């Protein structure tokens, strides 16, 4: 649930030897809107006033220079980091010692000792944040805590009301969100007795406040050797799916570092990649989506019809062949009863984006006799053990299998269109923003479904044409 965080000295060493070609890639850059005067003046104009004392405080607390090339500003993504001096690819642009990172071990032992084993690191770190929020100006972390966003400005779906969540009911993200909300509520119940034991610190903490702290951790924390860590300053980086820049951790030197993956001019917003995340994942954990996100994927469910007289045989066959090798090479794996579908770039290409395992399932579901099923089992044994991975010899049946998928996709497309049409104007600013997020999110998933549907339609037509020749 966090941005990916590469740990270990070895990975760190290889990261700074990044090949030079990485610097010439084309990527999205956000520039601040400066006037025409020279850049040092412009950069100074752009410094985020609210964070004026933040970097000097962090420098003093750590006893080390954090960054001499980045300054804190604001972009359309909220608080952001900008180059204030020229940066070359390969430069180390930021170093944050572990000693000034917040982690679950910052929780006082008297509180920690009361927590059960079932309480995870995110909940523990959320408690650390709650504690320092309560201390206010008296907290030694106040300059950092005061820079964290207010709950009203965060839009992760775990913070959406039941009414708002209905807008995305059509997507698997709806159920993912409910599951995640359930986990947060469970964690809150598990720590409630600790909150009650320390009324001087936690008096009146509500589930809503806990959720806020929990989502602060999920949207800004990195998995680390300390479990999960909040890395002040590094968590002002915004996300760009095309960036190759990660936050790296060197356990030997006890420091987190960022190495630039390309050149930046003063005034450029410096962006990193949190991970290769779909929009569902971005919206659940971070509260935003990326239009035309190249890592986007939609969960599609296809079930065996229970009234099929071969139902039991088919399930048995599928069960016997559901081994780890069913995973597709491109990691488009089958997930429980769902399949993750990505955009199919060309309707006349190979159909990359539709998992092979989904097409295999459709081939099995279309069999009408035990003999056909046996033939598939035999073919799998003679090949690599995977079931129905090659087109069926019976071309009609191959068309039928893909028509079955096509009708499933068409049905989903109709439902997505209806869901999009039902999103009507709303008056409150927060709700309007979330409605726009829902609209953009569903539009992205619809685009994927339509691309897969066009490919399936084209595949069936091509097979039929070959048959009639
Ligand atoms: C790690 S914080 C980055 C700093 C943040 N902008 C701030 O104001 O403190 C992650 C949050 O930044 C915002 N964000 C980051 N990248 C974004 C992007 N590409 N588009 C929109 N919002 C983004 C989202 O609100 C996300 O939850």
From TrEMBL:
One of its GO terms (biological process) is methylation. This is Putative SET domain-containing protein. Keywords: Methyltransferase, S-adenosyl-L-methionine, Transferase. Residues 62-275 form the SET domain. It comes from the Eukaryota. InterPro entries: Rubisco_LSMT_subst-bd (IPR015353), Rubisco_LSMT_subst-bd_sf (IPR036464), SET_dom (IPR001214), SET_dom_sf (IPR046341), SETD3_SETD6_MTase (IPR050600). Pfam families: Rubis-subs-bind (PF09273), SET (PF00856). One of its GO terms (molecular function) is protein-lysine N-methyltransferase activity. The lineage of its organism: Eukaryota, Viridiplantae, Streptophyta, Embryophyta, Tracheophyta.
